[in-house]
Amino acid sequence: MELYELTAHELSDLIKDKKASAVEITESLLNRIEETENKVESYLTVCKEEALAKAKEVQARIDKGEAKSPLAGIPMALKDNMCTEGIATTCGSKMLENFIPPYSATVVKKLAEEDAILLGKLNMDEFAMGGSNENSYFKKTKNPWDLERVPGGSSGGSAASVASGQAVFSLGSDTGGSIRQPAAFCGVVGMKPTYGTVSRFGLVAFASSLDQIGPLTKDVTDCALVLNAITGHDKMDSTSADIQYPDYTKALLNDVKGMKIGYPKEYLGKGISEDVKKAVLDAIDTYKSLGAECEEFSLPITEYAIPAYYLIACAEASSNLARYDGIKYGYRAAKYTDLLDLYKQTRSEGFGAEVKRRIMLGTYALSSGYYDAYYKKALQVRTIIKQEFDKAFSKYDFIIGPTTPTTAFKLGEKTANPLEMYLEDIYTVSVNIAGLPGLVVPCGKDSKGLPIGLQLIGKPFDESTLLRAGYTFEQNTEYHKMRPQI
Amino acid sequence: MEYEVVIGLEVHAELSTKSKIYCSCTTEFGGEENTHCCPICTGMPGVLPVLNKNVVEYAVKAGLATNCTIAEFSKQDRKNYFYPDLPKAYQTSQYDLPLCKEGYIDIEVEGEKKRIGITRIHIEEDAGKLMHDEWETGTLVDYNRCGVPLIEIVSEPDIRSAEEAKAYVENLKAILEYIEVSDCKMQEGSLRADVNLSVRPKGQKEFGTRTEMKNLNSFRSIVRAVEAETQRQINEIESGGVVVQETRRWDDNKGVSYAMRSKEEAHDYRYFPEPDLVPIVLEKEWIEKVKEALPELPDARRKRYIAEFGLPEYDAGILTSSKRLADFFEEAVSKNSNTKAVSNWIMGDLMRILKEKNLEVDQIPFPAEYLANLIGLIDKGTISGTIAKKVFEKMFDSGKDPQVIVKEEGLEVVSDEGALVEVVKKILESNPQSVADYKSGKEKAFGFLVGQAMKETRGKANPQLINKILKEELEK
């Protein structure tokens, strides 16, 4: 087996046993990127020299016994919406093509403190808006399982890089499913933690009340290791939760006996493909066979989740993206007649179609005379969604269901119909609206050989239960060992 | 027809916290362009605001000092609009749940007391400054002021004249200075007012259509803008026109206002709750503590001056109109109990010189103790009143203690009888005509001779002694 194929915890063991060095591992990953990048196209920036230099430095400290983190010497990559001091952070947009942040995001600092090695920055839908990576200004990342298909999005580069062995793990961000959907499409593990668990400082905002950073990994153990590194209270983020954060590796137990699991009937109803439905029902059977109690229940608000989500997300985005005005940094139109024209030309030329569509939607929803009918209504739906989940969690330890209605679709298949693309998010957006944790683990393949992801939804701040359930699933199935041939 | 003007004011005051509202940059005024800013206050991608707790405390103090109800739950909202001095393209402010509401302050105009309602006080961030380059066609932006905390104090439409508007802002300014939440330097823009104004026929209940004039930053401009806008609206109506609801810009140099934008062109700010910040939740006990720690307010101090120092109401009003002036007065009084004299000196010569030299009270170059010393020198007879006035001027030039000035320049009253006899003899010798006049019964001549003697001693002679010696010599 090549080093690039291994998980973080396997590599960490090799480093500890002096069977591999951080430098060898980093070289293996960089070679893998070189070999496969023309096919997969996950990366927007590869920091080859910096990664090798950092690997040498970290290995020297590992040798001295100073770098003890399980992530020390592990090469990883970041979605290109997390600010990295001195390294371009584009958000997949022409608007920020030349933006080099003078500061690093809190998660970037935290991973650096753990001595993880940054390989580079990953492709994404422009400003995290989209579910296929086709909205990136720079390139279209491919699904490593079928290069004619999308990797999902918006964290498509984050999922494709891990699935293809171009990064041991990566970070993505999830506003309405942007970690979980690509994780499902690419057959990797993805976690959207509870809102407030991972600092958003330095994450370029899409929708502030929904955005959350999380890991994409090859298995649940790695997911726990990365969560240990990136979670925690941050005084730079007012919405960061000031709580006791657990050691997530303590949750890695092969035991779900007596656990109560609910699955919403609305998540297995119309619109879902037979292959996905069957894989989810099989997973439910697996849990039953392991001694868990599984029960169908109803989340009737589900049909309102998508409209509520798009109203809230677009409203916040219209405000968050207003700062890209051509004045201070980023793209500025070459020709303009006055200030208003400078704004118009810059934003018309600098943003892609999907971003403009959402800015217009959001601006409309917040406009005087429409606020009550749209934005305020959406907030009321948000409250009801939270209440329905609260009710469900009074009965169940966690909720189980599909991540997406279908497996990865073909490039270009849904670009003509944005609404169809939005409906991909039907099973994921409620989790963001309610601020809950969601874990996706591979649970099978469809008839075309494409991966299917199982979604586990937990109580607020109860990532541990999800990790335990995911770990148990892994220990009793082989799906997490699936790797694409590129 | 007789008209009545109806005015509501929105006063913006920069809070004097050390750091900005959402980051740790300094709030200091001045400083080289774009040196008091960071990625947060310049709205770089990915940054987040963290509310400065002192801003909340300062705003709550302002609310308590103006008799407001303090909200135990309030939130911050985004006010969205594009302008180059606003780097995030939204101002974080408060929309429907302000920190303070339903207060009032009392004013007095020409002996008539009146209560002006305060609708609300909310916190928000200031914007940067545009600088139109004199040499190039472009415009430059200075972000130093971005994120400096502001409170906006919105009054009820209770004000009925320019004088009332002035008195209201003066009182508000005094209160904010007293509680030390703003330095209220109007010339630096740390206190500025928007005037909402309409007119209606006297006796009519409904309000007329109002206009708004923004960013008036002196009492003079407030008074002039109110007077001019009142007249403009009356003229408009009298000539058969209608007042248009619009925002106007007051040009203080020309003394006229111009239409900026109409109601139709007004921004739709698309307010919505700021998702990057959490609601502000205050505990009753904390609010009580802030209330108990409030210092004495202008009104209470004025009443105390009347009762404690026996000052006339007018004098007490002037002395307490500014905290710095009142502090100066009390400091002087604590060193010299001649309250009346201290008050007179401050109300007279001190105010005159400040006006002449265009100085603020905090720019007085000597401590209040020196004024007490000066009065002490007069009371002890060391210097005369005339000399004292000169010494006072010198104190403004050098900042020196009057005792030092008097000694250095030899200004003590001459009470040496022998020396003064010589002076008087000399004067009598050189003014025989006046001596003759006096002796023929012309009393006026005596005054002239006293004057001559004082002049000879450059005002330093003890006048009583000069009188006595002169009488004696003339009778010889």
Question: What this model shows, in words?
Answer:
Chain A is an alpha/beta fold and 486 residues long. In chain A, strands 1-3-2-4-6-5-10-11-9-7-8 form an 11-stranded mixed beta sheet, with helices on both faces. Chain A is globular and about 65 Å long. The mean pLDDT of chain A is 96. Chain B is an alpha+beta fold and 476 residues long. Chain B folds into 3 domains: 285 residues, no CATH class; 114 residues, no CATH class; 59 residues, Orthogonal Bundle (Arc Repressor Mutant, subunit A). Chain B has 15 helices and 16 strands. At the A-B interface, helix 9 of A face loops of B.
What keyword list fits this structure?
heterodimer, A: 486 residues, alpha/beta, 11-stranded mixed β-sheet, 11 strands, 38% helix, B: 476 residues, alpha+beta, 3 domains, 3-stranded antiparallel β-sheet
Number of alpha- plus pi-helical segments of chain A: 15
The counted number of beta strands of chain B is 16
The level of helicity of chain B is 40-55%
Using the alpha-carbon principal axes, give the shape of chain A: globular
Structural class of chain B: alpha+beta
Gap between N and C termini of chain A = 15 Å
Q: Please tally the β strands of chain A and state the result.
A: 11
Helix/sheet category of chain A:
alpha/beta
Tell me about the largest β-sheet of chain A.
Answer: 11 strands, mixed
Instruction: State the helicity of chain A in percent bands.
Output: 25-40%
Report the sheet with the most strands of chain B, covering strand number, pairing sense and barrel closure.
9 strands, mixed
